[in-house]
Design goal:
The protein has 498 residues and is mainly β. It has a single domain (2-33, 72-497), classed as Porin, CATH 2.40.160.10. It is built from eight helices and 19 strands. It has helices spanning 2-12, 14-26, 86-91, 96-99, 101-105, 280-283, 429-436, 480-483; strands at 137-141, 144-158, 166-181, 185-193, 204-213, 219-224, 230-242, 245-252, 292-299, 302-309, 328-335, 341-350, 362-375, 378-391, 396-408, 412-423, 443-459, 462-474, 487-497. The strands form two sheets. Strands 2-3-4-7-8-9-10-11-12-13-14-15-16-17-18-19 form a 16-stranded antiparallel barrel. β1 and β2 form a beta hairpin. It is globular and about 65 Å long.
Length: 498
Amino acid sequence: MQIGMHRRIRALLFLPFVFGFWIVVANPASAQEPAVPGEHSMHMQGHNPTQHSESQPTPKKKPPVKKKAKPAGKMPGMDHSDHGNAASSSFAGHDVAAHGMAGMHDMAMHGFLGSYAMTREGSGTSWLPDATPHEGIHARYGDWNTMWHAQINGVYDQQGGPRGDNKTFASGMLMGMAQRDLGDGTLGLRAMLSPEPFMGANGYPLLLATGETADGRNHLVDRQHPHELFMELATTYSKNISANSSAFIYAGLPGEPALGPTAFMHRTSGMDIPEAPITHHWLDSTHITFGVLTAGIIVDTWKLEASAFRGREPDQYRYDIEAPKLDSVSTRLSWNPAKEWSLQVSFGHLKSPEQLDFSVDENRVTASAAYTKLYGNNLWSTTAAWGRKMLSSGITTDALLLESALLLQQKVTLFARAEHVQESELFDEATAASLFGSPHPKFNVAKLSVGGIYDFVRTEHSKFGIGALVSTYDIPGVLSPYYGDPTSTMVFMRLKVM
């Protein structure tokens, strides 16, 4: 009785967010106020308010012209260096030539961390290629520009072999962001929720995935943990230094430190793949951290940042907000050398990341390159990444990822992900010592997943489709008695609000 009551109370936490999201989706025009003359120029992608000199002559005021309110729309995936790029703008479903740039300025959001295009920003303070399409429903409330976005997957998962299992579950996220000018800078608010805690504490079957715990007593092995109900509750402030440089701070409870590439559900090459990568805990597992404080500086296409954060991964209680603790550190250097590219290298020292191995600390190094290119109404995006975990217990393991997505005419999405991992946690210590003579034997394992989605329903702000994927594995012979020769499949429905 008490457990059922707690679940109902936790479910109610979704209602204010979903209600606000529904209002914007159902009637976005009602949220948008007429723009003050000249105000829209303050929110142009890539525009810096400081470049206007006070010595410029003040133009004569003209009588106000009453205009019809324009419905809030989604920002096209434009590069800030090419505002007239027809291919980029048409991809996101907004015809710039027909509607005019002025209508876009009224609803535009520039980057939270600088005066560049918002298309550059990924999860936390990470960067994506500037050519990335920006999907979201934009609206204006007084001085605030807002953006809403959602993606929900309904998945049937069948993992093969002796250690496989099957499950039906929902995954995804609901996200809202708001920003306003504050002095010579920008104040930002971000919130993201996930339905994944409702799938149960032990997550979903995923062969070769390890990390975290379901019950506080046992490691999750061959399963992916559910993400937290509160994936991000963060605020940012950036201050313009010059026309192309800024300094910023980011604070989250939870949030994401400056470590690794953009999290897999936010990068264009991986967001449509319904399963988590098995490289997750080498690359981007810190994307939900209870206690993050990041400061950084941006100069044109370069960003240098450092974070203090809580090293411990979230515990098995997925509905709560855990106490913050700044006991770990990281630093990241990012560079976008061209609008299609985003590169990063990062290092982090994590204090006691695993709840069940509290005496073990971790040093992590990552490097990644993301490439996104628009071809008319088609898009190709690829990410290559490497991560290394160096545990204080003396174990060092590497992981490699290569994933790619091809969006064709906005109706068909094809994707593939290849991974190679040195895995040392597939068996508990006692079992591993008995079977292999070492409590932490390392196995070189690999996985390849390929699949696609067909969106048979598409509206101005949403699309709904059905998809499937199949996964095959390369597993050493010594593991054959435990894994066999498995093949895994997922069939899913995907709703995206954008």
